[in-house]
Every structure is written in C-alpha cells, then in structure tokens.
Amino acid sequence: MRDTNCREFLRMSRRELLSVGTAGAWGLSLPHLLQLRDAAAASGGGSFGAAKSVIFLFLHGGHPQHETWDPKPGAPAEVRGEFPTIDTAIPGYQVSDVLPRCAALADRMAIVRSMAHDNPNHVQACLPAMTGHTHPRSVRGRGDFPPADTDFPHFGAVLDHLRPGASELPNWVQLGPVMTRSNRTVLHGQSPGLLGPAHAPLIVDQDLTADDVQITAVTPRITVERMQGRRSLLAEIDAQRKGLARVAAETKDDYYRRAYDLLAAGSTRAAFDLAAEPQEVRDRYGMHHVGQSCLLARRLVEAGVPFVNVHYCKTPSGSWDTHGQNFKKMRESLGPTLDQVFSALIEDLEQRGLLDQVLVVPMAEFGRTPKINKNAGRDHWPFVYSLALAGAGLKRGVVVGASDRLGAYPQSKPYDPADMAATIYHLLGIPAETVLLDRQRRPHRLVAGRKIDEILA
Questions:
Q1: N or C: which end of the chain has fewer CB within 10 A?
Q2: Contact between 119 and 125 (Cβ < 8 Å)
Q3: Can you tell me the mean pLDDT for 133-151?
C-alpha cells in the first residue's frame, strides 16, 4: 500500500503538497515527493499539464476516415467513395472536401491516422474511447449489455476525483443526453463507474437554440434567499439527526453543500448564460444542438470548468453510424456540422488566447469499413481510424501515422485508445503512475497505454 499511496501523492499539486507539511505517514520525505512530482513533469517537457481544460466532442457511431481525415483518392471506386479531396494548410496533406474550414485550420491540428483496436461493438468500444480501458476478453462476445458500477471511470470522473473543485463551478459537465443504442442499452464509458456516483457529471440535456435560452440544470426553482432559509432549516434538522452512520451523514452533507454552492453561485449562472453570446457568435457555431453545445462548452472552459463533454447524437438515428446513405449524410449534415463546430472552437479559442490552455478532442469509438456496402454505407471498422485534435500541449500542423492504400489497416505504428487516454492524462498533468482506489479501497492503475509523443509539443 505504501507504493499506492505514494502514487496518490504524486497527483497532488506542489501547493497541495506543501500544505500537507510532512509525508511521514507515507514513509517518504516531502522533498522526495516534490522531486518525484517535478521529475514527472520534466519527463514530458512543456506538454505535461499544459491543458487546464478539455472539450471532449464524442462522435457517436464513428466517423468514416475516408470522408474526413484520411481520404484515399487513388483507391478503387468501391473504396474511394464519392468525394474529392482538398488541400489543407499542411503542405502535402489533404482531407475530404466536406471539411473546407477545418482544412484551412489544419496547421493548428494534430492528426493521428493509425488509431486501431479490435472491438467492433458500439456499446463496448465506447469504454476504451472514454476511459482508456477495455472489457475483459471473456465478456467481448456478449454483444450489448448494460454498464456496471465496476467499470473504469470516464476521464471527467477521474479528474473530479483527483482534483476536487476549488470553486463553485462543477468539475465535469456533460452537454447532451446519455448516449444509447436502438435497444436502449447505454454506451459504456459515460459514467463514474468504480469511483461512485459522487463523481457523476452535471448533465445539461435540453434544447439550446432558443434566443433567450436558460439552462434549467443550473436554474434554481426557488430564490437564493429562500434557498438560504431552507439551508438553515436543513442544518437544524441535521443537528437533531439520530441513528445515522457518521460516514453516511457526512456524505449527505457534502451533497447538500455542493448542490447549494452550485445553484447559488453567480459564477455558475454567468458561465451557463448562453443567451449572453452575440448572435453572430452563436451563428458561427451553428444554431443546432451540437453547435450550441460546443459554444456553451467554450463558455464553461473559459470560466474554469476542467472537463466538458459534448455528445453528438443520443441514438443511432442521425448519428455517425452510417450503414446506409453514408455519402448523402456526410454531404448534407454530418460533414458540414463537424467542419463548422470544430473550426469554430479552434478559431474562437485562439482569438480569446485560450487555445494553448484548452485541449479539444473530437473522439469516436472506431471508424468505418474501407469497402462501401450495397446500401451506399460503411459499416463498423475498429482496425484503423483517424482522430484530429487541437489545443493545449499539442504540436501544430502535424500528421502522425498512416493507413494502408485502402484505409483498412495501419501502415505505420498503430495507436490504441489506451495510448490516446495516456496522452490526455499527460496533457492534464496527471502522472502515468497514478493509481485509483475504488470504493472498496482496491487499487487500479489509471494509465494502461503510452502517451503519443509524436503529437506532443
């Protein structure tokens, strides 16, 4: 346990360590712990801890690599597809012509074209995409099954656990509903899992396109003055409480405190005031759910929220799961929407001086088949896919990895979702040696892969 506790200490900031005053209980001196923490930072260069916040845009269903970041203009027609390619701001690198705005901003991006794993099931493949950990192979053949409270936790839950918020703002906000499949099975990886419900996100699931939109999740149903009165009453009642276990009582009190602080804080209301944005800014992101969610995500990270999820589509309907009419959907909806929101985020963050502090990660569970099916669609394909990222701690204008001539398998070094997770944690300043303790105090190593050094600044 000594080694586990040492790793827990490594994830603390220098200020937090100094406030402890001594580390004698862990059998190590404070100077030694500081040395280990600083060594972890030094080993990563300037990229370690560069991201103060993350905007995590999940493209439910999996975007086709051929129609986004890895087109194959020289492949046969049944692989190449219908779209021409266009040049980008990176010399010699082309993307699909449905991404013109992103093409012009490619010199701000880091593109990885050799992502790969071996699980083609949507429900299961979302776990490594959102946590960096996979299910045991013994359960892979079960198809769709519900998540469990023993699953590895989402990035946002881990961050909430390791770095309790220092302000009234939540640590982890989810914009959009919980993502499910057509059989209503919840996609894995969205929950706090083994860390417990105390580390669940604040969920904003409503229409965001109204001119005078108000976020109901942070709108008190009673006035702050009445809340203060009710808080006093709760305190009196709690003072008389008998027969409850001490730990349970303290946990309940903590929930009361966090909920009250969140709803009563002026900083919370200001951060979520999407209607305060100029109409031209709202139009730039797009007056649709994903566009307004991305704009709200920008407001939240600017206010200091560390982790924001944006869910692109709740169910297979309208999602990136293009088994049929792939080209029609990519041309009319999916491609232009991704092009609009990703480019808007990059430009907006850069203009506000935030792009070096905020990591933007459009993520998916896998890609799509190289061969077009009889329904003009592409099916599930985890064996190679592409991701494009931007922001804090990343090299700009770099393309890493390559797929083969058909876009079917990695031609160069493959990168697993665990490697992408290791990269995200590195950029957040969380050492790879970190160990989580579940509610039964059992240790779980946080990072299962290796960071992708080729994209790190």
A1: N
A2: yes
A3: 90
In the chain, what are the domain boundaries? 46-209+277-430+449-455, 216-271
Q: Cα dist. 124→182, 217, 275, 374, 444 in Å?
A: 15, 29, 37, 26, 20
Q: pLDDT tens across 90-124, in order?
A: 999 999 999 999 999 999 999 999 999 999 999 99
Cβ of 26: how many Cβ atoms within 10 Å? 19
pLDDT given at position 137: 84
Q: In angstroms, how far apart are the furthest CA atoms of the chain?
A: 76
Q: Which of 119, 140, 181, 188 is nearest to 382 (CA)?
A: 119
CA distances from residue 44 to 65, 139, 386 in whole angstroms, order as listed: 30, 36, 24
Mapping DSSP onto H, E and C, the string for the chain reads: CHHHHHHHHHCCCHHHHHHHCCCHHHCCCHHHHHHHHHHHHHHCHHHCCCCCEEEEEEECCCCCHHHCCCCCCCCCHHHHCCCCEEECCCCCCEEECCCHHHHHCHHHEEEEEEECCCCCCHHHHHHHHHHCCCCCHHHHHHCCCCCCCCCCCCHHHHHHHHCCCCCCCCCEEEECCCCECCCCCECCCCCCHHHCHHHCCEEECCCCCCCCCCCHHHCCCCCHHHHHHHHHHHHHHHHCCCCCCHHHHHHHHHHHHHHHHHHHCHHHHHHCCHHHCCHHHHHHHCCCHHHHHHHHHHHHHHHCCCEEEEEECCCCCCCCCCCCCHHHHHHHHHHHHHHHHHHHHHHHHHHCCCCCCEEEEEECCCEECCCCCCCCCCCEECCCEEEEEEECCECCCEEECCECCCCCCECCCCECHHHHHHHHHHHCCCCCCCEEECCCCCEEECCCCCCCHHHEC
CA-closest candidate to residue 456, choices 46, 162, 2 = 46
pLDDT digit string, tens, across residues 296-347: 999 999 999 999 999 998 766 789 999 999 999 999 999 999 999 999 999 9
Please answer whether residues 359 and 427 qualify as being in contact, where contact means their C-beta atoms are separated by less than 8 angstroms: yes
**Among 320, 305, 297, CA closest to 381:** 320
CA separation for the pair 119, 149 (Å, rounded) = 21
CATH superfamily of the 46-209+277-430+449-455 domain? Alkaline Phosphatase, subunit A (3.40.720.10)
Taking CA atoms, 49 is separated from 124, 355, 419, 424, 456, in Å, by: 29, 14, 17, 10, 11
Q: How far apart are CA 310 and CA 399, in angstroms?
A: 25
pLDDT of residue 261: 61
What's the sign of the alpha-carbon dihedral 57, 306, 201, 418? positive
